[in-house]
């Protein structure tokens, strides 16, 4: 998963729900060095009676926000969803640096 372009990550999930595995794997895929270099990470644990929906929300360097419900996707699908936009930013960055 390409996390280089993340500036803010917000994850909300029920630790006992079906979305927990995808959300936890997503959080663990963010390298520790990136966490120290300025990527803001927020997580919120939901209780069984909570009315809030589980969500994974990422803000990229160009201020674009993308969000998805982790209960409908596997970790690999979550990674692919955010990687599509990261690849666009990577291509744009490589074009501008030439």
From TrEMBL:
Name used for this protein in its record: Large ribosomal subunit protein mL53
Domain of life where this protein originates: Eukaryota
Cross-referenced Pfam families: MRP_L53 (PF10780)
GO cellular component: mitochondrial large ribosomal subunit
Keyword annotations of the record: Mitochondrion, Ribonucleoprotein, Ribosomal protein
GO MF entries: structural constituent of ribosome
Entry similarity comment: Belongs to the mitochondrion-specific ribosomal protein mL53 family.
Gene3D superfamilies linked: Glutaredoxin
Localization, UniProt: Mitochondrion
């Amino acid at each position: 998963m390409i996390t280089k372009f993340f500036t803010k990550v917000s994850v909300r999930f029920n630790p006992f729900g079906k979305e927990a595995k995808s959300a936890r794997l997503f959080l663990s895929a963010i390298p520790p060095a990136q966490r120290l270099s300025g990527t803001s990470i927020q997580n919120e644990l939901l209780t069984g009676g909570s009315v809030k929906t589980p969500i994974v929300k990422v803000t990229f360097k160009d201020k674009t926000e993308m969000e998805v419900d982790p209960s409908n996707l596997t970790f690999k699908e979550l990674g692919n969803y955010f990687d599509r936009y990261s690849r666009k930013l990577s291509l744009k960055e490589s074009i501008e640096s030439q």
